[in-house]
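Q: Here's a chain of 126 amino acids. Please give me its 3D structure as tokens.
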Amino acid sequence: MNGTVIDHIPSGRALDILKIIRITGKEGNVVLIAMNVESRKLGKKDIIKIENRYLLKDELNLIALVAPNATINIVKNYDVIEKIKVELPEKFEGILKCHNPSCITNYERESLSPKFLVEDKVKLTL
């Protein structure tokens, strides 16, 4: 097996992770989801395995929004060759949408993308 395993996802959030990184199942990759798995650290957790697909840095940043303690395992030939701890970046640019309807980034005529600075990584304040 080659691909990515996303571990230590808070229980019940696996589908949110797939949605946020835009994996629908139509891409052709085998995707396995385990939800509410017993965990010594978390009590219960979710796990996602995506065959023949490696995640991009922007996707890791998105995962950190939903599962800030997730671990990404890169697998090649059934061996974990790298473990990556997701981490919130200092800022998100062009990923999130501004909820203020008057924000200039919400106008189609403008070619501006919203920028959000991370103020508190523990409380996840943008």
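Q: Can you summarize the key feature?
A: The first strand starts at residue 3 and ends at 10.
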